[in-house]
Amino acid sequence: MKLLTFAHRGEAQAFLSAYSFKPVDFFFDGLLKSDEYYLLITGEGPHAASEKTISVLATYNESITHVYNLGVAGSLNQKLKLHDLVWIRTSYAHHAEKLEFKSYTSSNTNAVNDCITAHNRVLDHDEKNKLSHFANIVDRELWAVASAANLFKKPFFSLKIISDEMKNAEIDICKFVKEEASLFSEKLLNEFQKEEIQILKKPAIKSDTVFLDDSDFYFTTTQLRKLQSMLEGLRLKNVTQNQLKNNPEVLAIKQLDKLPKERTKLLLQFLGEQLNPITVKIRASIEVALSPLQDAKINPTYDFDFEEDWLNLSMRINSSRDLEQVKNALKIFSYENFKKTFDGNF
What we know:
By secondary structure, the protein is of the alpha/beta class. It folds into 3 domains: about 1-200, Rossmann fold; about 220-275, no CATH class; about 280-340, no CATH class. Helices cover about 45% and strands about 20% of the residues. The protein is built from 12 helices and 13 strands. The chain has helices at about 10-20, 45-60, 125-130, 140-150, 175-200, 220-235, 240-245, 250-255, 260-275, 280-295, 320-330, 335-340, and strands at about 1-5, 20-25, 30-35, 35-40, 65-75, 85-95, 100, 105, 115-120, 135-140, 155-165, 300, 310-315. The strands form 2 sheets. The chain has a 5-stranded mixed barrel. Strand 3 and strand 4 (about 35-40) form a beta hairpin. Helix 6 (about 220-235) runs parallel beside helix 9. It is globular, with a radius of gyration of 24 Å.
């Protein structure tokens, strides 16, 4: 069974209506059970969430297989807007002006957004800016729930709905969340149910997947899932696995003097371009935008999947002349142009 955790009953109300939950006679109020799930109302804040989640997991350790944390969260990124639904990748915590040493990564391999749990409510814009360096979302319970799940070696997942945008309007956010709780809960339930259906439908890695047993490539589990997704997309475009296996560009990648994992990255890049040709144009435009850096022997790298708009620069300086070249290149280079191109505005 899965344990679903919420800070407040308002966030859980759609779940309570959708499933036949009944109260559990427990050490404290707020624990309910249906045929499929346990549901726990933790209360607000990391301390309450930690204590109650640990108590439930300790008592029902053998029957609980997965832990979920669902509810509202604040945006720390201008791109995340009110009512956006976000699956969380990694959970961090911030306390007493410091970042907690431990972080916990969810079992959702498709998630790309991180969440930071704050010990106090974060309503001040300056405080949001500070926390935005660590994550795109802020909440008050996830890290505690994830920590408890880790303690009992349970995989955890987290789904958040944005209730507070980065540019906070002059509103009483607590009152607003209470008034909108029914809508937030319905949206959370719909997304949760869609994910549950997808999990049931997801097949295991097929043994006949092309490239799977090819020693020229090495796939992680995440890359295998991405490979299967791409192959299915190409199949719908009438491209067969056999055609891909014998494609001249694929054969050329196999001949490169690189490690198998590096060839795998190039293969997935090629398949992605076949699936979505516009990425070829985006990548070409990005290379033009980065050319001033490359001319100065600066090695720029970026997210080849275009999921996050970061840019990493590495360089080797052996002389004052090298340093001057780097300085001049950085003056010429326009990060704003790179950003626009990265977002597809070219």
